[in-house]
## 1
Amino acid sequence: MSAGRPPSLLGATWVLVRKDLLLEWRTRARANALVFFALATLLLFSFALGPDTTILRRAAGGTLWLAILLASVLALGESFRVEQENAALDGLRLAPADARALFLAKSLANALLLMLLGAVILPVLAALAGVTLVQGPGPMAVVLVLGALAIAGPGTLYAAISSQARARDVLLPLLLFPLLIPALVAAAKATSLVFEGDPMLQFQSWLGLLAGFDLVYWSLGFVLFPRVLED
Amino acid sequence: MNLAQEGETRQEGLPVARALPLSNVSNALECIDVSKRYGQRWALARLSFVLPAGASLLLTGHNGSGKTTLLRLLATLLRPTTGQLVLFGQNGVAQRATLRPRIALLGHTSFLYEDLTARENCVLLARLLGRPASEVDGLLDRAGLAQRADQTVRTFSAGMKKRLAIAGLLLKQPSLALLDEPFAALDPAGIAEMEQHIRSLSRAGTTVVLATHQVEHGQTLCTERLHLSAGRATQA
Amino acid sequence: MTHALFTVVGVAVVGGGLYALVRGPASWRAGVAVLALVLLVSGAWYGLVQAPPDREMGNVQRIMYVHVPAQWMALMAVTLNFLCSVAYLFRPSWPKDALAEASAEVGLFFGAVGLVLGSIWGKPTWGVYWSWDPRLTSEAILLVAYAGYLALRRFIDDAERRAVWSAVVGIIIAVDIPIIWFSVRWWRSLHQMQSSPSTVDPDMVRALRWNAFAFLALWLVFLSTRYLIARARTEREMAPPPMVAEAAT
């Protein structure tokens, strides 16, 4: 038999992303439940804010990102529960798979899931709150991509930590929510500007903040995740 | 196996590590005064032994005596709280990245993804090892899983998961095979096959550590023996 | 230039003081605690009696003499936590982990004190306790973040894991500080004058200075005590087991 040559970092990431997406597809009932959870959250916000459509419209950006953020906590926790079921993560560590590839793959898979979730609940939000994409679908897509990356990067790192601690269901949001406040602010503001137009030309700045957040935390995650996994 | 007891034996015939042989590449395992703590409890305490390459070690002990912890330490998945672990002449903590391709663990958890099929699980491992996915079919056949290769692992019985896990272990062709209760959940035919697999691993020069309650199976397979009691090595 | 020199001397004095309190006998810590008490009392006298009322804010402004030092101490503790976290990941050692834990807890304490005092000050000044002032808002977010950090430390049993993971989390939170600051300021900006001794009356400077040193002494006592507790715990956790099994219990 042949002595194999292990794949490169990107090769391993590709293998692992495919594995994560395949798992996500096999357990799509869970992803569906996640979508309905996010929709229920949207409904709850609408009821809590009252029937006044002007308030709903002005809060639409924040509502969208809160729904995604709340659903993301469940998605992130779930993405590591799969790894823990038969200690599959230990199997990957021993295989051996590069921990950095594991981080990139898991974060990418989670980000894709959140982007999909956002895209699915967006039309429902538009109907509930009576908003339209004044700036068109392009800028909205950019905000959705950058926002999902902002949640998934540090979220994956924190989910890896909290999945192995006691009280993990409390710990993950407690760690993640304060960290994500800048990303939430930026994503919600940018989304509002997409809904309501951007007379002051602030859209670029919020997008810049979001992109900077992504860059910082994906780099940090890339560097720190091996320590989280191995110690 | 040498219970590393150059020097005196203190009370009740317990081995005490005094002078240990210098790191020697012909030793597959060197466990030097290794302890592992979980919370308030010492799962392993002051464990010292060496195992030459190619030897096979039978690990016995009651539930909770530290067998699984020791295997996970040897697999480099855990790091010792105190003490030092040397595998094939390399430090088991600092050089785990280079050691891992040579180590396989058949754990009491199967490391399998329940929602992937048997083949997908094996192909994932093959890809990470950089081996051609075509090797997988032959291995599944050898493990007696050819018929159900395309069903998800969730539909498998415990015995079949064990068979699949051994297929993964064989795929890796390790220098050190760590087997945690390999006979559990297997039917008599499965046990016989597992014994075959272990024998062929030993013949191929693989160092084997076998933890089991079924001493009668283990004794015929292994050359050395270590009994653990409350995390300490004792004479069986 | 003098500024840099002042900083270097300050860091050296504080670091040396901390080292002495940790290594020295317990009576030194008691001594500094007494000193802190004396300074606090005289600081209160300077702040409440000696210093003149503020021209615009009146007597309300006196809360600054305790609010600002508390913020400084919180900032120092958080900086220390970040440095310890980075240092731990580069070269693991238990004292760094213990100091990281101590500084997070002390930082949370002084931050909470500063936050409460700040919002009390806000009530007569702005009419509301919470005006979403960027500085206080950022601080509130950070307090929750460090509460999460301390919760994480409680929820992990394995000492080494706890040390590494909390170092990772400590770095992540510290990196977030400037990002939070900018995002909150963009999100809602409210002008706020900078409080620093150079902008106020000499009597006010003295009141602020006495209180700052009082808080510094308290900070040192809290930090060293908390450090010693954390050290004792890891030492117990990492002590090797006895050579011979204890009698079965």
## 2
Amino acid sequence: MSFDVAYLWAQVPALLRGLVMTVEVSAISIVLSIIVGLLGAAIRMLHVPVLRQVAAGYVEFIRNTPLLAQLFFIFYGLPTIGVTLSLFWSGVLSLTLWAGAYQMENIRGGLETVVKGLREAAFSLGLSPWRFFRLIAAPLAVRVALPAMLNTSISLLKNSSYLQAIGLTELTFVAIDRISMDFRTLEMFSALCGIYLTLVLVLSLFTNRLAYHLQKPFRV
Amino acid sequence: MTILINNLPFILQGLTMTLGLAAVTLVFATIIAFVVGTLGATRIGWLRAVTRTYVEICRDIPLIVNIFFVFFGAPLLGIELSPFAAVTVGLSLWGGANGAEIVRGGLEAVPRHQSESAKALGLKGWEIFIYIIGPQALRSILPPFIGLLTLVIQSTSLGALVGVTEFFRVGQIIIERTTLMEGWNPAFTVYGAVLLIYFVICSSLTWFGRRLERRMRRESKGGGVLNATLVEAAPTLP
């Protein structure tokens, strides 16, 4: 079987539609998961009584169960007890919950390295715990944790391909769908690999720019 | 709850399949990891480049795509792969790439003076590797490898997508069957139970890995010569 460029060219519109969906679902989930991570890290750093244990349990649970099972639980399991989410938002929710746990650990790691004597200093200046987290700890921790957070975001982007299992028409779904009709396996997979590698690269470049930008105030 | 008890033999069969799949994958992934990781830690330029390319490609492509590629791509080469074999190959390639990074990190974390002292004492290249570098690297390699194992166990659930009747697929089948035969949908209970069982298996492994890591760290602190720093590199997520 030879490599058919014309065929691939004809599939570009379909692949582009899938790509848009992949980017959309990943972008929303990345933003939401970072928010979840920040909140969780704040809860655990400030020793909020019950919520702290909940956050720790949540991280353990997410890290020790397969994403596929989490996804199916949210998409097929929750509706049977009356919580129905659309296809798209089920996907966003599962990716957010999954990556949120990892982001929380990343940010916590960042907090541990920067916040040693800072807390006492801030409290003696009269800052409330929440303002200390928001104004001092979080900005510093995020700068330290940025590489790890990038890794998690890349994983999230790659794992958005899990959503093809529940039928969201993202990139992988489109490709597999075409393959099962036209059997042009090689063409489709090279396209998939190319696109995913590019996406990962773009995301890394973007994060590098962001890191550069964030470091500006500290550069002499 | 009763559906779970009624389907117990079926569930156990699925669990066996999952653990079997994970075990076979682990064997192949470990072999790939040690070969590729060792080659990647050498100072031979083109070898490093080749292993680097393999590792990067396998890690940057979604695991699902990887497995589908093996599943749909093997017939193009004229190879008939059963779903089980396809998943094993796909997971092993992926696990091997992640393991190779762990192995390479472990080998490179052994301080340079170790091999230099060994060379000064007149040990041959392979002797240095087997008696000096290897044992020291192993203690920093083992804990992250257990992390990789839990990821492999979790990822075997992808077998359900290409038709391996492993634990997750068993859950799906039970749901379909109950919906058809009894007219109600037990998705919440069954998927909840599936999540819990995965959690029990993987978290006990994680716990064991953490204990091992603490022990290794303690030992290497007191061990004088054996002061290879533990690799931080947790395997990247599926």
